[in-house]
Amino acid sequence: MKNDLRPRGLVCLVGFMGTGKSTVARLLARQVGWHYVDLDKQITETSGLSIPEIFDRLGEPGFRKMEREHLARIVAESVELNKPRILSLGGGTTAQPENVALLRERGAVLVWLHCPVYELLPRCARIKNRLSSATKPVSAVSIRSGFPLMSLPITVSRAIWNL
Fold first, then answer.
1. What stretches of 81-116 show up as alpha helix (H) in DSSP?
2. What is the CATH number of the domain that holds 136?
3. How far is 52 from 57, CA to CA, in rounded Å?
4. I need a labelling partner for 17 at 20 to 30 A (CA). Which of 55, 57, 64, 129 fits?
């Protein structure tokens, strides 16, 4: 794949739960003066339910439908209003081919945040209101299968938490 250097108005952070997507997205948006959006937060605020509650009530297909609808709305608003955004995606968003297709067709830059497992485990243990790794329906293999589609992989370590 050739590097495309056109200016972009949508940068999406992708990675496993606990890699720091929301933190990095918020800091990056502040640095570049763009609007920050957290996809999972949008879903929970709109539905009034936590992610585990959505999975309990609607199952994974119901959650993925909500996720796809919110993602499409956020991307459309960014394009229509010509407002650049930094978007933190849920851990399984890019495991859904239609989501990746939508982001690619709109010219989004996908940034894969990688974090070593020995750092992820303690982080995930502290995260509340998320699916536990034991019940999380999206497998690591399905998420990693999207890695070649990412525009830019970045390794995240403890240093990000000190910013």
1. 97-105
2. 3.40.50.300
3. 9
4. 57
**By residue range, what is the domain housing residue 24?**
10-162
Query: How is residue 22 written in tokens?
Result: 């929301």
Tokens found for residue 108: 């989004």
Order of all β-strands in the sheet with 85-88: 35-38, 85-88, 10-14, 109-114, 152-155
Q: Give the pLDDT confidence of 24-73 residue by residue, as tens digits.
A: 999 999 999 999 999 999 999 999 999 999 999 999 999 999 999 999 99
Start-to-end CA distance of the chain, whole Å, equals 33
| β-bridge mates for residue 91, sequence order | none
Task: Kindly report the pTM of this predicted structure.
Answer: 0.75
Rounded to an integer, what distance in angstroms lies between the CA atom of residue 12 and that of residue 78? 12
* Residue 143: per-residue pLDDT: 42
Identify each DSSP E strand in 28-156 by its residue range.
Answer: 35-38, 85-88, 109-114, 152-155
Residue 102 falls within a domain, yes or no?
Answer: yes
